[in-house]
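[agent] plan:
  1. take the single chain provided in the ticket
  2. run structure prediction with default settings
  3. attach structure tokens to the ticket
  4. add a short note for the reviewer (M.T.)
[agent] executing step 1
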Amino acid sequence: MTLPNLGSLALLTIKQPAQAAKVILTLNVGRDVLWIALALAVVLNTLIFSLSNIVLPTGPSPIPGLLDNPVFYGGFVGGGLVLTIFSLHRVGRMLGGTGSFDDVMILMVWMQFLRVTVQALALLLVLTIPILSVFLIFGATIVGLFIFLHFIDQAHRLGSMMRAGGVLLASLFAIAATFFILLSLIGGPIMGSTPYV
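[agent] step 2 finished; step 3 output follows
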């Protein structure tokens, strides 16, 4: 694809996400290229996040050592993205979907690049017209969910937005359970536990 094609595809993704997903799924992209693209998306995400922290410091991080450290933040975002892709693929297959890992991956990577674009625009608006930044983030969240559901539906050829919603909810549950188990294994705080005991 060329850059003008990417712009057109971005507009198509917003207007007709299902059609955009079909176009993306026809691209012959190797898995090695997908991993490189995913890494690039994570790096760009981390750069924008770090820049926003420099330009608009928000005080102490709620997770010291993670959100204030670009390397840890990038690892957290990258790990979360890989876990999301894996979960959407496996859960979708268990619920009757037929999408491959690469199908899910290419659509999620494309969404990450769109997300990075929105983050960059939001940062620019925060510095110029803050109120528009709020509207952009709110609108992007709603549209992003709409796109996400269509992408899940197309990746797994489910033919139903309700089934796509089921895959999303089940995947979120699986991801939450995985994080809970990992935190338990590494000795992280368990919700409801008393600190300093």
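[agent] step 4 note for reviewer: Residues 188-197 have pLDDT under 50 and may be disordered.
[agent] ticket updated
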